[in-house]
Amino acid sequence: MKKIVPLALIFVSLAAVIFWKSKNAGHVKDSFADNLHTQFAFEDIAKVERVFMVDRDGNQALLERNKDLNWTYTNKVTGKKYRANPSGIYMLLETIRKVRTREPVAKPALDNAVKSLSVKSTKVEIYDKNKRKLRVYYVGAMTSGGTGNLMIMEGANKPYVGYIPNFQGTIGTRYITTEVDWRDKAIFRADPKSLEFIKLEYQHPSQKNESFKISKTAKDQYIVEAVDESTQIIDGRLINQDNADVYFEDFDVIAAEKILYDKRLRDSIITTTPFVIVTYKTSYHNEPQTFRLYSLYNPNADRGDGRVGHREKIQRYFIDIDDDNFFLGQHIVIRKILWGYSFFFQKEAVKLMEDEAMTKRSFPEEKEKERKERNKRAEESK
Predict the structure, then answer these.
(1) Where among 153, 169, 184 does a domain terminate?
(2) Sorting pLDDT into bands at 50, 70 and 90, what band is 2?
(3) Could you give the C-alpha distances from 126 to 42, 96, 138, in angstroms and in order?
(4) What own/partner pairs with CB < 8 Å and gap ≥ 24 does 351-357 have?
(5) Helix, strand or coil for residue 140?
(6) How far apart (Å, rounded) are the C-alpha atoms in residues 117 and 39?
(7) Is the same domain home to 120 and 35?
(8) Are residues 239 and 340 in the same domain?
(9) Average per-residue pLDDT in the chain?
(10) Does residue 175 sit in the same domain as residue 192?
(11) Do 193 and 117 belong together in one domain?
C-alpha cells in the first residue's frame, strides 16, 4: 500500500503535465514581460489614445483617437490634420499589441546593431487619454536572418530582436511616418444611418435635368426633389423607397486611387467646369460637405476589341474638395453614386398613374359620380 501511493502521485503528476502540454501546444513564451527593457508590447490597446512616431529622416506622424473612436493623422511638420488610414491604424495597433522580444542581440553583433539604430530607426511613443507615456522605444532595421527587427527601449543600452509570433518578415514597415501612407484615401466616409441629404448637380446642359436632392424624413422615408428648372417633375408619390434606401446605403465609403499633391495641376483643373458637384450632410457635420468631380477624358479609349468605345472614354475623375484634398478616382468605384433624378421612380408606378389619368379622361361621368358619393359620405360623418 505504501508503494502504491507514491506511484499514484507520479501518475497524476504526469497526467497533469500531459494535459497542460496539450492545452498549450504552439504556445509562444511571453518574454516581453521578463524585465523592464523587453516590455515593448502593450496589450490593452483600448487604452491607447495617441501614438507619435519620428524617423531619422525627420518624418513625423501624430495619430490620435477622436470622440467617434476614429483616428486622425497630423503631419507634425506642416501642422495639418487629416483622417487616418483605417487599415494602417489597425495594423499599427495590432503590432503594438503583439510585438514580442525574441532574444538579445548577440555580443559580436552588438556594436553594429547600436550603430544601425542610430542611423536608421523610428522612435515610437505610445500614450493613454491622459497623455501619460505607456511605451517609448526605437524600431530599427530587420535582422540578417529575417526573423525580426532591432529594437531598443528608451533609456536602455542593450538592443533586442523584436518580432511578432507566427509572422515572418519585417515589422518596421508597420511603424510608418510618411503622410502619403497615413492619409486616408477615401473621398468620404459617411455613416448611412446619419445621412440627412445628398445632392448631385450635373453641370452639362444635357444632363442638368437629372440633378436631384434626396432627403431622409423623420419616418425613415425619402423625398426626391428636382434641382434644375429643366427637369420634368415626376409625382413624388411614385418614389421607389427601396431604390432610395439602396442609394443611401451605397453612400458610405468612396476611396480614391491616389492623393494628388500637384498644386499646379489642381489650379488648372478647377478652372474648368466640373462634371458634377456633390453635396451631402450627416448629423455629425455642422455644415454640408461638398466635393467636385472633373472628368478625365480619353478620346482614344479602347473597348477591348480595338475599337473606340463611348463609355470607356471616361475611366477616371479628378476629385477636388479643397486645397489639401485633391484626388484621382476610378469611374468603376465612383459610379455607384452617379444616379439621376429619374432613377428613383418606378416605371410601373408611372404607367399606373398614366392609366389613372386616362381613365379620368375616358369616363368623366363615373368619376363625377364617385366624387359626389365621397362628398355625401363626408357630410353624413359630420
Answers:
(1) 184
(2) low
(3) 9, 9, 12
(4) 353/235, 353/238
(5) strand
(6) 18
(7) yes
(8) yes
(9) 83
(10) no
(11) no
Long-range contacts of 167-175 (CB under 8 A, 24+ apart): 169/142, 170/142, 170/146, 171/95, 171/99, 171/139, 172/122, 172/139, 172/140, 172/141, 172/142, 174/91, 174/92, 174/95, 175/53, 175/92, 175/95, 175/122, 175/124, 175/139
Condensed to tens digits (0 to 9), the pLDDT of residues 137-188 reads: 999 999 877 789 999 999 888 899 999 988 888 899 999 999 999 999 999 9
Between CA 94 and CA 221 the distance in angstroms is 41
In a domain, 2, yes or no: no
Taking every pair of Cα atoms in the chain, the longest distance, rounded to a whole number of angstroms, is: 114
**What kind and span of H or E run contains 297?**
strand 289-297
The answer to whether residue 131 is domain-embedded is yes
Cell reading at 11:
501518475
Contact between 84 and 184 (Cβ < 8 Å): yes
Domain that holds residue 175: 31-184
Query: Which three cell numbers, joined as nine digits, stand for 139?
Result: 524600431
Q: Calculate the CA 16 to chain-centre distance.
A: 48
Residue 359 pLDDT = 45
Q: Do 192 and 297 share a domain, yes or no?
A: yes
Say if 53 falls within a structural domain: yes
Written as nine digits, the cell of 291 is 466635393
Total number of domains constituting the chain: 2
pLDDT tens for 291-301 read 999 998 776 66
Q: What is the pTM of this model?
A: 0.74
pLDDT of residue 377: 54
Q: Please indicate, yes or no, whether residues 128 and 107 belong to a single structural domain of this protein.
A: yes
SS3 content of the chain, % helix, strand, coil (to 5): 35, 30, 35
Instruction: Examine the domain organization and report whether 101 and 169 are in the same domain.
Output: yes
Q: Are residues 279 and 137 in the same domain?
A: no
Under a CB-based contact definition with an 8 Å cutoff, are residues 109 and 150 in contact?
no
Q: CB under 8 Å to 263, separation ≥6 — which residues?
A: none
Identify the domain boundary among 157, 184, 211.
184
pLDDT exceeds 80 at position 43: yes
